## 1
Amino acid sequence: MEDLDLITQKDAAELRGVSVASINDLVRRGRLRSIERFGRRLVYRSEVAAFEPSRGGWTKGRPRKTQDSKEPPTEASGSKKKPARKKSAKE
């Protein structure tokens, strides 16, 4: 790839319609290659344009609560209440 294919992270963010922090995160995680030239971190325009996210939203952790979920949690969901504390003879 030639130098003409290199763009700044700011230009990459504008090209994709995302924040510079998002582009920086992709570079940090190795999803986009980058090089340092002229004192700046540059990415390849062709990779930015061809980038396809693997999945939308969060990929780890528990599912988010939904507004229409009005049912109380069950023991299977892991929300157990602590047993009531017994009063001691001192109280």
Note: The longest strand covers residues 40-44.
## 2
Amino acid sequence: MDVDVELPAGHRLVSLAEDPELRGPMGRHNTAVWPEFMFHDPVANKNWDRLFSDWAEFQVCLLDPNGDVAAAHNSAPLPSSDTPCGDETTASRSTRGSGSMPASAAASSGHRPDR
């Protein structure tokens, strides 16, 4: 993944589109760093797998020099509209081929405090 940001020495950013095998390590990382409430949102739970099937290029890991996940970022493009964010309507409209460019992205990021 080519971005114009300085990364810590030996680290690299990789999207799941580039390396789908990172889905498991990313999931284990997220489970370890997210607060409990993150696991109980019905809209997120219903749409979670779509992040990986529909928007793999928006799922990004920061890998340390050993290739381990140091940080993870999960997001999905939001449609360009006046739709309120964070509800079922937004999640269902965030689809490929909708014909609109995303105005922004809904996101969740997490990192281990020791990294």
Note: The CA atoms of residues 80 and 103 lie 5 Å apart.
